Amino acid sequence: MHRHMETERGARLGPFRRRLGRTVTTLSLLGAVACTSAPAPDAVAGPDAPTGHDVSVATWNMCGVRQWNCEKTGSPKEKFQQLRELIDDSGVHVLLLQEVCSQDLVSSARSLGPQWHSAFEPYAEVDEAGRRSPVDCTGQGRGQAGYGLLAGSALTDVELVPTEQPTVGLHRGILCARVPAQGLRVCNAHLSLRESDAEHPEWDFRDDQLSSLVATASTDAGTVFGGDFNSPPPVGDRNTSAWIWPSETYTTYRECDQKGGSRSGRATLKDGTKLDYLFTGLPRTSCTVVDTKVSDHRPLVMRVSRPEGPAGVSTAR
Questions:
Q1: Do the Cβ atoms of 224 and 280 come closer than 8 Å?
Q2: CB within 8 A of 231, min separation 6: which ones?
Q3: Residue 264 falls within a domain, yes or no?
Q4: Is residue 16 part of a domain?
Q5: 83-90 contacts, C-beta under 8 A, 24 or more apart
Q6: Which CATH number characterizes residue 248's domain?
Q7: CA-to-CA dists, residue 290 to 78, 86, 150, angstroms
Q8: What distances in angstroms separate CA 315 from CA 122, 222, 302, one per listed residue?
Q9: Three-class HEC string of 144-199
């Protein structure tokens, strides 16, 4: 963690009241990771089996927590329709989702069909005494706010990766799982905003969080990792947060939209900023930024070639 003084753009968590507190903590592995799957009487067809070894993975901040300035970004039904379009039109097999409500995620998996599975981790608001409280989604029966995974086949080895988090304030995190049918491991990260710690607003946690993400990705060559990094790419003279990025992200790995030596990529936030990423060491065959009217973030879709060998077997580094 670097004690750095710049101000981050696009903070959307103003409604939270930050309070003074203790020292920096890490996410506990005892956090509640929920895995669900449910049959549906009216199942929607899942994605077709990938051609050859190709698999499509998407990341999308759904802006589903209405009290976080998301009131005008569409209903849960409209957001589900966008998920379905990603699956049907873009052939997505695995989705990394941020700012999703737990019951919306369960409902989506149920509506898509019995082959669809999900995993969810709630955000937590931590007070000055270290007490953790989940963030409830507004709207009856929508559950808790968090981040999760949605896949058209079983998820196994679901793991919450420990990361540095604010002493007092909102805890996000990193959630990983294997998707054996696709021969992949995926990691979904939602990084802290600048000034997330009420006691030390000058501290930046994103460098440590990115380092933890890269470290866990390095344990399996079949990993796709990404999410909402709350950070612009490490380019430009005016980018005061370029220092947070581990060198491996654009060298050992390649980003979905990376072309040659460029580290920019198309905007994923509607204000013209790129905040959403997908990285992998696997061969990339396409990258798409999908327009949507039901979030302030655009979904990012990457198609990759799977590791050689039987489905579900990935090559360890």
A1: yes
A2: 8, 191, 206, 241, 244, 245, 275
A3: yes
A4: no
A5: 83/108, 83/112, 83/150, 84/44, 84/112, 86/58, 86/60, 86/290, 86/299, 86/301, 87/44, 87/46, 87/47, 87/112, 87/152, 88/47, 90/56, 90/58, 90/288, 90/290, 90/301
A6: 3.60.10.10
A7: 15, 8, 18
A8: 31, 6, 20
A9: EEEEEEEECCCCEEEEEECCEECCCEEECEEEEEEEHHHCEEEEEEECCCCCCCCC
Contact 193, 8 (CB under 8 A): yes
Q: Which residues constitute the domain of residue 116?
A: 2-7+56-305
Mean pLDDT per 10-residue interval, the chain, length 317 residues: 39 33 35 46 39 86 96 96 97 98 98 98 96 93 97 98 96 98 97 92 96 98 97 92 96 96 94 97 97 97 77 40
- How far is 143 from 110, CA to CA, in rounded Å? 16
Q: What are phi and psi of 177, to 5 degrees?
A: -160, 160
Say if 20 falls within a structural domain: no
CB-based contact 136:105 (threshold 8 Å)? no
Whether residue 37 is contained in a domain is answered as: no
Instruction: In whole angstroms, give the CA distance from residue 47 to residue 29.
Output: 32
How many domains would you assign to the chain?
1
